[in-house]
Amino acid sequence: MTVTELLSYEAALASFDPVMGLEVHVELGTKTKMFCGCSTELGAEPNAQTCPTCLGLPGALPVVNEIGVESAIKIGLALHCEIAEWCRFARKNYFYPDMPKNFQTSQYDEPIAFNGYLDVQLEDGEVFRVEIERAHMEEDTGKSTHIGGATGRIHGASHSLLDYNRAGIPLIEIVTKPIVGAGDRAPEVAKAYVAELREVIRSLGVSEARMDKGQMRCDVNLSLMPKGSETFGTRSETKNVNSLRSVERAARFEIQRHAAVLESGGTIVQETRHFHEDDGSTTSGRIKDNAEDYRYFPEPDLVPVAPAREWVEELRKGLPELPRVRRNRLREEWGVSEQEMQSILNAGAVDPIVATIEAGADAASARKWWMGELARNANEKAVSLEELPITPADVARVSTTSWPARSSRASSPARAPRTRSSRSAV
Ligand SMILES: [Zn+2]
Predict the structure, then answer these.
(1) Ligand 1 centre and the CA of 65: distance in Å?
(2) Would 323 disulfide with which of 2, 175, 199, 226, CB 3.0-4.6 Å?
(3) Is the pLDDT confidence value at 408 over 70?
(4) Distance 383 CA to ligand 1 centre (A)
């Protein structure tokens, strides 16, 4: 890998203001694909879950998945977006072997949801509002596996395998407006935004949004403008970043790289970039000029989507409490500090604690069990709390039973749990 010149983070921020744009793809958890009845279940034999529609065979006609549309509307509403009264799908034309139709069915200038926002809370409690440009519906592509190359990429491969099981699985793409004014906290804002969005998606029950399973991935667009300027610089787009930490690292790396190029009198090339987990760097992908033309046009085989206002209002009424609001409410009810709440969140203990309290335990002992003994146990076994063979009802029963004095064990009080990210607890 070629060594990239970087400016120190502090020096970069002393001269420039970062502008970010985040594009997040979420794979919906529908049982069937977006435009056909094929199953979306993972783990099937390659190409077992395909049909003439998702293989793009001549004459096959798509039909819209109603749950897909409903999920998109729910996401739009939870992000405080307006919901289109009438919108269409569009064909995004390009050739790639993992897309047998030679176009992706997407939405272009008529997204189902637009003009929203998501408030995200940073680690010190500050709330930053990220404006949402749009959320639109589209379909996933198939999966290419390149054989023989050193890095799994197509370069140097002897041949490629194609699996179309994923082709046609519904995706929602959520695009922010340019995020300005975050300054040196831009990478933190990016991470907090993706984390909060993930919580929102999960609370709606429309996707598990597991980044490690590729159900949620983020493209990080970044550019710099000289301090005091209001003209955006040329941006780079780091594709398919698939963990929260990587989102933060990718933004940070690109700030330092752009600054180094600009400070030395160079120009930023508008391109896509690949992120590398091992050292947190990005490398050049494909040049992307402004004239990139997908020849979008309205999809003639699908009727427009015109969600009835009554339906939209019904979905709005059915929205769950937003995760940030719920967290703040629980924090107050449980009487814990921001920091404690953060470690409860990091440990994945919020829902188990809520369920234990519902099963009859008091908040303090529910918290003590899940964040103490059980967290330690889960940590040792490298499983999540919910994967432990103990239910909230069990914990409630144990915590409401009075025990004889534990004098013999009093010298070894439960240590604080050592979860992967409990560093913010100390
Ligand atoms: Zn199909």
Answers:
(1) 12
(2) 199
(3) no
(4) 35
CB 9 within 8 A of CB 184: yes
> Which residue from 26, 419, 378 is spatially nearest to 199, judged by alpha carbons?
26
The CA distances from residue 7 to 14, 252, 261, 306, in Å, are 11, 11, 9, 50
Q: How far, in Å, from the CA of 33 to the mean position of ligand 1?
A: 7
Alpha carbons 224 and 314: distance in angstroms, whole number? 43
Compute the CA torsion angle 337, 343, 345, 349 (nearest 10 deg).
Answer: -100
**Beta-sheet pairing, 113-121 with 127-139:** antiparallel
Strands 82-83 vs 113-121: parallel, antiparallel or unpaired: antiparallel
| pTM recorded for the entire structure | 0.86
Place of tokens 């009264």: 85
Q: What confidence tens digit (pLDDT) does each residue in 336-372 have?
A: 998 899 889 888 899 999 999 999 999 999 999 999 9
CA of 44 to the centre of ligand 1 (A): 14
Domain locations in the chain? Answer: 3-317, 323-411
Nearest-angstrom CA–CA distance, 229 and 232: 8
